[in-house]
Design brief:
Elements: E1 11-16, E2 22-27, H1 30-59, H2 74-96, H3 102-106, E3 109-113, H4 121-129, H5 131-136, H6 142-149, H7 156-161, E4 163-167, H8 188-193, H9 198-210, H10 216-233, H11 248-264
Antiparallel strand pairs: 1-2, 3-4
Length: about 260
Amino acid sequence: MKEPASDSSLARFSVDTPEQVQVHLEVAGVGTRSMAFLIDFGVVFLTLMALLFGAQFATSTNLVDWPWGTNHLLLPLVLVTLFLLFWGYFLLFEWLWNGQTPGKHLMHIRVVKDGGYPISFFDSVVRNVLRVIDCYLPPFAIGLICIFVHPRHKRLGDLAARTIVVVERPLDFHLPPAGAPARTSSFQLMIDSLSLTIEEVELLESYLKRRKELEPGSANALRAEIVDYLRAKLPGNGSAPVIPIEAQDAFLEELVAQQDGQRQT
C-alpha cells in the first residue's frame, strides 16, 4: 500500500490492536492543536462574557460597581465559575466526547491513550490539571514549547496522563454511482438478509475507517475474517455465494450504508 505523503507537521507511529493488527496513526502537529485550543478558548471566553453581561443586566449593576470584596459571596461564585469554564470545559468535553472538545472536533483531532485506546475520566483529569501550567501560567507558552520539541508533540499534561493527540480520519463510505457495473447490485440479496447489531456495525465502520492505515496483508486478512463471519450469519449456514476479494470492500460499504439508513429511519 502506498504511504501517505509526508507532512512536517505530523509524526507517525504504529500500535498493535488486540487482534494483532498494526494500525498507523498520525499525531496532530503544533498548528492543528493551536487552532483547536484557540477555538475552545474563544468558546470559553464568549461564554464568560455572556455570563458577566447577563449578570450585569439581571442585577442592573455595572460590573465596576459590584462588591468584589472577599467578605461577599460574589467572589467565591466568580472563582468557581472561572474554574468550571477554564478547566471543567476541557475535562468534561474530552471525557464525554471520547477525547474531543468542540475545537478538536472542528480540527478533526482526538486525544487517545499512547496505545491508541480511548481516554478515561482519570486521564482527562490528569492532563487538564496540568493545563494550568501548560497554557495559563506565565510565560503562557510552556505547553506550546513542549509540543514543538517533543517528537510526538506532547505537552506536560500528555506526558503525565500518557495520552497523545492524533488526527482523526473521516469515514470514507462512497457508494457506486447510478451507472456502476451490475456486480455491486448482486450484493443486495445478501445485504437484505443480514441483520446486524450496533456492535457489529461499529466493527465494520472501524475497519472501513482504518483500512488504508493497515498493512496490505493485515487489511486483507481482517477483511476476509469479517466477510466470512457475515456469510456465516446468512441463511444456509455459510453456504452463501463467495464474494470475490476485489468486491469485498464494496460489499461492506453497501452493507454499512444500508444499516446506517435503517437506523436513521
